[in-house]
Amino acid sequence: MFDTKTNNIIKSSINSNTVENVDENTDTKALLAAKEKENENGVGVYDESQIQVLEGLEAVRKRPGMYVGTTSIRGLHHLVYEIIDNSIDEALAGVCDHIIVTLHKEGSISVKDNGRGVPPAIHHKVGKPTLEVVFTMLHAGGKFGGEGYKIAGGLHGVGASVVNALSLWMEVDNRQGGGIYTIRFERGVVTRPFARVGDTSPDDHGLYVRFMPDPEIFEETRFDRDMLLSRIREQTFLNAGLRITLRDERTTEDGDTPWEKSLCYEGGIKSFVEYLNKIKHAKPIHPGIIYMCDQKEGADMSAEVAMQYNDSYNEMIITFANNMNTIEGGTHETGFKSALTKVFNDYARKIGALKGDDKNLMGEDVREGLCALVSVKLKDAQFESQTKAKLGNSEMRSFVESFVTRKLSEFLEENPATGKIILEKALAAARAREAARHARELTRRKSALEGSTLPGKLADCRERRRDFTEIFLVEGDSAGGSAKSARDSLFQAILPLRGKVLNVERSRLDKIYSNPSITPIIQALGCGIGEEFDIDRLRYGKVIIMADADVDGSHIRVLLLTFFFRHMRRLIEEGHVYFAKPPLYKIKRGKQVRYAFTDEERDKTIAELGGTTEVDRNKGLGEMNTEELWETTMNPETRTIVRVEIEDAIACDEIFSVLMGDKVAPRREFIEANAKYVDADMLDI
Fold first, then answer.
1. Catalytic annotation on 248?
2. N or C: lower Cβ tally within 10 Å for the chain?
3. Identified catalytic residue from 24, 434, 488, 552
4. What span, in angstroms and rounded, lies between the C-alpha atoms of 152 and 233?
5. Which of 82, 113, 364, 550 is catalytic?
6. Where are the alpha helices (DSSP H) in 298-393?
7. What is the band of 155 on the pLDDT scale with cuts at 50, 70, 90?
8. At what angle do helices 269-279 and 225-238 cross, to 10 degrees?
9. Which of 472, 516, 433 shows the shortest CA–CA distance to 635?
């Protein structure tokens, strides 16, 4: 049950198809070998013949990852987001209030808005129709100055043209000024020239873009409705009053009829906070949403914050800049956190909760159980990349910090009962943090007496360069012993897990630091957790969870994944966390031995071998001999491992809250709804 949902956690929450079979031909051992060969032979030939010149959209097709991040299902959906974001920019300009996204039967997708459309005239500098310029030239758009867009999520003007370049075909219907204009492209090249094809009323205006993703570029070309709905819901929360409709005209395996959902939230980000607490099944500890907003006159800069505390131990701060989810935060998040810490410390001293020499509350104390949305809008937003993961405008930090300090202080003065409830939670978190510090120091002193800061059961590797190393977190001493015998000690470290892994979803830091299953992991990885986390101190390039292919093993994977998501999230975000994938079956015919990872693969292998075959179901890692474990699960040249990535942090937070939280009813509903995914073999039935 848990194993199937582990994959579905990654499918529907961490990434709607985040599970990737990693090509291990370029993995750790191969990299080490390549490094040695390079040292022996010297650097290869490098002259003018090695310099490539790519023009126009050719560069996009040659290196799609530079523009959409990846050619996996995540990159596929990035195409849709780019087109939707352009329509939302029209909404930000106040000229669009309805967007329709349609999944068509043959696999294409369309986005239609009632914005202004694109000017139909010939562009005076390029000598081509403006519509063609927008969809074929990089860095062409209305967001580089002037008054076309004062606020826009688009930064580089490459979105529409990149989508065009990576599509098998694209058709555009543009309605503006009483005219209907069309154009068609195939792999970025115009195949039906721009033309006016009819007339319409001046009230009929907007842009309709329909495209088919190119199967030569993307690993998967079927759009995931749930991923799109999650993104659309997010955008309707951020743009109060904007309606976005998602339609799915495709037929499913079950023969479902066409599906449609229309979203519009007048409450904006206040409704967003209510929704997040609801899906997390978290109980608010104070009534109402704390809402603050401000606008800096003459600077085209505004910000709004909605926040509410709940009874969980986890914080959730989600930030946006010009409607772009800045998943890596930025100056607006820094300003908000600084203001929050300062205001609650000042308030605690004012009402006497902190006295004299009492230590101030730390940021992590005042953010325990916080669910907050920070949304800013500004002209000339500075993002770190086309994916807009982090805001860099320095003036936004001081603006957010100043207005949140002022507004939140006023709120606490006017609502002392709510202020005291929040403060009591923060003080309890501070006491738990102090207990955790003592537990941590005790652990460090004990390790120092033993002569090492590393856990005693760790079998370390000899290689010290992080990018060439990996650590296996192994279930139990038996499997740990097998893994130690099977490993390549040059670059593979083994850490057997002790006892039951703690469910950190229901635990504060003091319990985490005193838990015998979690503390050795923290010590071995070396990068700390929570506020002390430092990715630069990570000791291993790959952290591989290796557990049995049964219910218990699946439960352990989910528990460890919960720990990493809650306390070491950057390990996942930067691609360091993996699942080992031991085979389910060993199939023999004579001297031929094959392994299968699924029932389908087992049946196919039996058919290929023919004759009488012997099939053994692998029950546990500890029961595999050294050669089998190395060949099937640990050898970089032959193994399959699964990389964990985060696509939708909100959905991911929800799934961990449901599966690992203390609310029984939501978990029961979840299990009942997903019982059809259970593999009877996993249950040993």
1. no
2. C
3. 552
4. 19
5. 550
6. 331-350, 363-366
7. very low
8. 140
9. 472
The answer, yes or no, to whether residue 254 has pLDDT greater than 60, is yes
Q: Does the active-site annotation cover 550?
A: yes
Can you tell me which residue has the tokens 């867009």? 149
| Domains 60-263 and 269-434 fall in the same CATH topology | no
| Distance separating alpha carbons of residues 46 and 527, to the nearest angstrom | 38
Q: Which residue has the tokens 């218990």?
A: 552
- Any catalytic annotation for residue 548? yes
Question: What value does the mean pLDDT take over residues 249-263?
Answer: 82
Distances in Å between the Cα of 401 and the Cα atoms of 31, 316, 374 are 46, 18, 12
Amino acid code (one letter) for 382: Q
How deeply is 215 buried, as exposed, middle or buried, from its count of CB atoms within 10 A (0-12, 13-18, 19+)? Answer: exposed
Strand-pair category, 470-475 with 592-596: unpaired
3-state DSSP call for residue 165?
A: helix
Nearest CA to 482 among 602, 628, 323?
Answer: 628
Phi-psi map region of 420: left, alpha, beta (phi>0 left; psi -120 to 50 alpha):
alpha
Q: CA-CA distances (angstroms) from residue 578 to 10, 325, 477? A: 12, 25, 20
- Per the CB < 8 A criterion, the answer to whether 374 and 329 are in contact is no
Can you tell me the distance from the alpha carbon of 420 to that of 422, in angstroms, rounded to the nearest whole number? Answer: 5
**CATH says 2-25+451-583+629-683 is which class?**
alpha beta
Q: Which of 113, 470, 475, 573 is catalytic?
A: 475
pLDDT tens digits for range 415-427: 999 999 999 999 9
- Taking the domains of the chain in order of start, what are their residue ranges? 2-25+451-583+629-683, 60-263, 269-434, 585-617
Task: Write the DSSP symbol of residue 676.
Answer: G
HEC per residue, 425-464:
HHHHHHHHHHHHHHHHHHHHHHHHHCCCCCCCCCECCCCC
| Residues 411, 417 contacting (CB under 8 angstroms) | no
Closest CA to 144 of 134, 132, 131, 135: 134
CA 619 to mean position of chain CA atoms: 33
For residue 9, what pLDDT is reported?
A: 41
* 62: exposed, middle or buried (Cβ count in 10 Å: 0-12, 13-18, 19+): exposed
Dihedral of CA 368/369/370/371: which sign?
positive
Q: Decide if domain 60-263 falls under CATH 3.30.565.10.
A: yes
pLDDT in tens, 632-684: 899 999 898 999 988 778 888 888 888 888 777 888 887 777 665 555 444 44
Neighbours of 442 (CB within 10 A): 12
Candidate from 551-555, 603-607, 631-635 with smallest mean pLDDT: 551-555
- How is residue 406 written in tokens? 């002022």
Q: Are 220 and 73 in contact (CB under 8 A)?
A: yes
* Residue at 369: amino acid letter: G
- The C-alpha R_g of the chain, in whole angstroms, comes to 27
Give the three-class secondary structure for 590. Answer: coil
Locate tokens 């990035």: which residue?
A: 78
Q: How high does pLDDT run on average in the chain?
A: 84
Distant-in-sequence, close-in-space partners of 50: CB < 8 Å, separation ≥ 6:
none
Helix or strand (DSSP H, E) at 378: strand 370-378
Burial 271-281 (b: 16+ CB within 10 A, else e): bbbbbbbebbb
Domain 269-434 sits in CATH 3.30.230.10:
yes
Active site residue 89: no
CA 305 from centre of chain: 22
